[in-house]
């Protein structure tokens, strides 16, 4: 007997690298998407040999393999938001850009992963230039940390005022909005700076949490924003909810030892059951 379908799950596609240690990359993305009640799909761009101590090897998947993953998902399980993480080379970036142009209605969130916490370089130099020229103009939000924002703008960023200036520079590349993450700034407070093309500027403030278990924080935040975007929230509201989730996930994982280095967040401190959206609204 055929089912009379009434609902659809909010789907999020993550295009990113694999972290064998499970703390960041595709693994952190899918944990986050699941914990926030969305349906996670994925396209792996690269495979890393990685644990809490760092990356020891990296293998880039062939462009055709990555693109086939993306096509397979989009043609069947149309995502309500796409999160992009590590794109290791320019050929893949161009190919991903070509696909995104076919689906301008799907929100795209870019976490421009360039350098691992261990210092391991994850993308080629020319890929960064193409990111600015081709990919960022297609995005609804770009979420660089201080190091990534410094690379993209070629400026030193060490204060909140610097972050504001950098956000204005990044917005010139053509994206809809920028969120510069200030987690590496020293102090008792954590500030993230938001700016969009509507002229809205916000500073998101959180207490800094002294924890060794922060591996994958950036991946988790961008994926969480994608989830709340898929759930029909405006960008500032989506960011506010995502930051609250990440802050709590860090706090709930402080006392847990995983590996010998930087451990992961507690993604499942309060998991949300899969959300059902009206099929006629979201399909």
Largest sheet, in brief, is: 6 strands, mixed
Helical percent range? 25-40%
Tally of separate helices: 9
Topology as H/E string?
Answer: EEHEEHEHEHEHHEEEHHEH
The pLDDT mean sits at 93
The counted number of beta strands is 11
Radius of gyration: 18 Å
**Adjacency order of strands in the biggest sheet:** 4-3-2-5-6-7
| Spans of at least 5 consecutive residues with low confidence | none
Q: Tell me the distance between the termini.
A: 22 Å
The helix-and-strand class reads alpha/beta
Gross morphology: globular
The proportion of strand residues reads 15-25%
Could you please describe the fold and organization of this structure?
With 283 residues, this protein is an alpha/beta fold. It is 35% helix and 22% strand. It contains nine helices and eleven strands. The protein has helices at residues 25-35, 63-74, 90-100, 125-135, 146-153, 160-171, 217-230, 235-251, 279-282, and strands spanning 7-8, 11-19, 39-51, 54-60, 81-84, 108-110, 141-142, 177-181, 189-196, 201-207, 277-278. A six-stranded mixed beta sheet has the order 4-3-2-5-6-7. Helix 4 (125-135) links the parallel strand 6 (108-110) and strand 7. Helix 7 packs across helix 8 (235-251). The model has no long low-confidence stretch (mean pLDDT 93).
Layout of SSEs?
Blueprint: E1 7-8, E2 11-19, H1 25-35, E3 39-51, E4 54-60, H2 63-74, E5 81-84, H3 90-100, E6 108-110, H4 125-135, E7 141-142, H5 146-153, H6 160-171, E8 177-181, E9 189-196, E10 201-207, H7 217-230, H8 235-251, E11 277-278, H9 279-282
Could you provide a short overview of the structure?
The chain has 283 residues and is an alpha/beta fold. It contains 9 helices and 11 strands.
């Amino acid at each position: 007997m055929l089912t009379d379908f009434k609902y659809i799950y909010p789907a999020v596609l993550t295009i990113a690298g694999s972290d064998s240690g499970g703390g960041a990359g595709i693994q952190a993305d899918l944990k986050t998407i699941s914990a926030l009640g969305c349906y996670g799909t994925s396209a792996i761009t690269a495979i890393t040999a990685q644990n809490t101590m760092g990356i020891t090897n990296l293998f880039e998947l062939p462009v055709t393999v990555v693109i086939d993953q993306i096509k397979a998902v989009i043609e069947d399980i149309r995502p309500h938001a796409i999160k992009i993480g590590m794109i290791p080379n320019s050929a893949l970036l161009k190919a991903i850009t070509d696909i995104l142009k076919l689906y301008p209605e799907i929100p795209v969130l870019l976490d421009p992963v360039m350098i691992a916490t261990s210092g391991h370089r994850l993308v080629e130099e020319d890929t960064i230039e193409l990111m600015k020229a081709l990919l960022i103009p297609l995005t609804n939000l770009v979420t660089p940390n201080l190091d990534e924002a410094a690379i993209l703008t070629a400026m030193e960023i060490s204060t909140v005022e610097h972050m504001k200036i950098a956000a204005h520079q990044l917005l010139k590349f053509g994206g809809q909005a920028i969120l510069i993450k200030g987690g590496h700034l020293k102090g008792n407070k954590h500030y993230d700076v938001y700016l969009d093309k509507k002229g809205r500027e916000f500073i998101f403030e959180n207490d800094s949490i002294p924890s060794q278990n922060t591996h994958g924080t950036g991946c988790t935040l961008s994926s969480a924003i994608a989830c709340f975007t898929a759930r029909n929230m405006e960008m500032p509201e989506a960011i506010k909810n995502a930051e609250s989730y990440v802050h709590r996930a860090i706090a709930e994982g402080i006392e847990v030892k995983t590996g010998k280095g930087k451990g992961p967040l507690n993604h499942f401190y309060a998991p949300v059951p899969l959300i059902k959206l009206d099929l006629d609204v979201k399909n």
